[in-house]
Amino acid sequence: MSRWMFVLGTCLLCGSAYATSVDAPALKTGDTWVYTYTTENGQHGWAQKDEEISVERVMGDGVLVTLNQKGSNQPPQEELRGLDWNHAVDINGKQQIVSQPLSFPLKEGKKWELSYIQAHPDPKLVSHTFDCKYAVTGWEEVQVPAGKFNALKVECDGQWSNELAPGVNVASVASANQTGAAAAMQSQRILPHTVISGRIYRAYWYVPEIKRYVKAVEESYNTSGFRSYRLTEELDSFKPAS
Fold first, then answer.
1. Any residues with CB less than 8 A from the CB of 92 and at least 6 apart, and which?
2. d(C-alpha 135, C-alpha 107), whole Å
3. pLDDT tier at 19, thresholds 50, 70, 90
4. What's the confidence (pLDDT) of residue 137?
5. Count of CB atoms situated within 10 Å of the CB of 144
6. Of the candidates 207, 223, 200, which has an alpha carbon nearest to the alpha carbon of residue 146?
7. What is the rounded (10 degree) CA torsion for 13, 14, 17, 22?
8. pLDDT tens, position by position, 83-123
9. Integer CA distances (angstroms), 39 to 48, 87, 219, 228, 231, in order
10. Beta carbons of 82 and 61 less than 8 angstroms apart
């Protein structure tokens, strides 16, 4: 960890704790963050990667950022994000925000809600429904690879549900005829619509001087209440535009 990051992290513990309201950051072309992403998929193991996020261009209502995975031979991806770091995608022919970690100005006790229904997100699903209630819970210290910071925490508790498309279950049965030759038979059964649901939890630790959150957690729980997925983002370094 660089000396600059150590000093910054120490100062943040002193300054930001007294802010009652936090405005949107003044993002600049060249602002760069490096995060470590840790993905846990239930009983299927975990994976980790480092990714660099850089501001390519600042526009009136958002920013164009580049995403560059460390160690990858693929070119960087470009994405449009809102000034509150929201992420919008095309749903049924209309741009719809699917993630809104922040809502400026931020202050303790502020709340907002995000919900959407996506028709046919993939061939196996008729629809995907998401609803999450966000709340700014207050200031707290958080430790990440870049250092220790005083951050404004945002939490989101919500529900998700997937309506599965009807399918066909094909069963093969092998038998022998009177001559002893093998014969194969198939039976088909139409599977009905099925709806599965679960819970979602998200948390973000936002630091004004970093212009972004230094840590984020996303968890998904299945119909039985078991955690099936967790994504953790932690800041490794931040380099402001020169």
1. 118, 119
2. 10
3. low
4. 97
5. 21
6. 207
7. -100
8. 999 999 988 888 999 999 999 999 999 999 999 998 888 88
9. 6, 19, 10, 11, 5
10. yes
Buried b / exposed e along 222-241 (16+ C-beta atoms within 10 A): eeeeeebbbebbbbbbbeee
Three-state DSSP class for residue 39? strand
Which one-letter amino acid corresponds to residue 232? T
Contact at 8 Å (CB) between 107 and 22?
Answer: yes
Structure tokens at 59: 């526009």
Token reading at 182: 């093998």
pLDDT tens-digit readout, 204-228: 999 999 999 999 999 999 888 899 9
Helix (H) or strand (E) holding 143: strand 125-144
What local confidence, expressed as pLDDT, does residue 214 receive? 98
Contact 237, 2 (CB under 8 A): yes
Please name the amino acid found at residue 218: E
